[in-house]
Amino acid sequence: MVKGKFSPSVTKDSKNRCWATITQRINAENPSAVSRGVADVKKKWQDLQSIVKKKEAARRRSLNATGGGPSPEDTTKSWEKAIISTFTNTQLEGIAGGEDTGSVSPCEPLSESGYSNSQAEEYYFMLEEMKMQKVELYRMKKIKIMEEMLVLKKRSTKALEEIRDSLKADQGPLCLSPIIKIHEM
């Protein structure tokens, strides 16, 4: 429930209650006198997920590495495996055919990574242009999908209207109950 999407049965309140229960159980098992709050427990969970996700992603990459020899020993602990089971393959391996956009750190000046200022500026603008092209491509795909959805909605509306008309012709006035008759005006 903690990771579930909001729905009629999974609400913000139900998630908060779940986190409060988890926090109570952690504090009850805690051998020290330190009492943690919900925010502390959530942060620790995020940190653990991040660490384990990086470790598992690196392990999976090493399995696909070439070089011969035996596979590296699996040192994953049972609690780490429990966390790994909460991830999807896409979260661990990325999108097939996708590009890693984190190859250049936005915090590290390109001039310090071997580029001259003019090269860094040119590279930056090239990346921005590529990003704009991708955004435009996705926008065009979205428009195409929306147009297809509109065509399907028009077809279903037409079909429903035809069904309504055939029902009117077959039955006369619409009936909601055996007593009340509705006549079109």
Write the layout of secondary structure elements.
Layout: H1 12-29, H2 38-63, H3 78-84, H4 89-93, H5 117-171, E1 174-175, E2 181-182
Antiparallel strand pairs: 1-2
Task: Describe this structure as you would to a colleague.
This protein is mainly alpha-helical and 185 residues long. The chain folds into 2 domains: 1-66 and 73-92, no CATH class; 115-185. Helices cover 60% and strands 2% of the residues. It is built from 5 helices and 2 strands. The chain has helices at 12-29, 38-63, 78-84, 89-93, 117-171, and strands at 174-175, 181-182. It has a two-stranded antiparallel sheet. A hairpin with a 5-residue loop joins strand 1 and strand 2 (181-182). It is extended, with a radius of gyration of 29 Å. 1% of the residues are buried. The model has no long low-confidence stretch (mean pLDDT 78). Residues 2-56 form the Myb/SANT-like DNA-binding domain. One of its GO terms (cellular component) is nucleus. It comes from Mytilus coruscus.
Can you tag this structure with a few keywords?
extended; 2 strands; two-stranded antiparallel sheet; 60% helix; 185 residues; 2% strand; mainly alpha; 5 helices
Name the helicity range: 55-70%
Q: Report the end-to-end length measured between terminal Cα atoms.
A: 51 Å
Q: How many individual β-strands? A: 2
Query: How many domain modules?
Result: 2
Q: H/E order of the elements?
A: HHHHHEE
Per DSSP, what share of the residues sits in E-state strands of 2 or more residues?
A: under 5%
- Write down the Rg: 29 Å
Count of individual helical segments = 5
What is the topology, as strand order, of the major beta sheet? 1-2
Q: Give start-end ranges of low-pLDDT stretches.
A: none
Q: Mean pLDDT score, rounded?
A: 78
Q: Tell me, what's the shape?
A: extended
Q: Which class best fits the helix and strand makeup?
A: mainly alpha
Main sheet specs: 2 strands, antiparallel
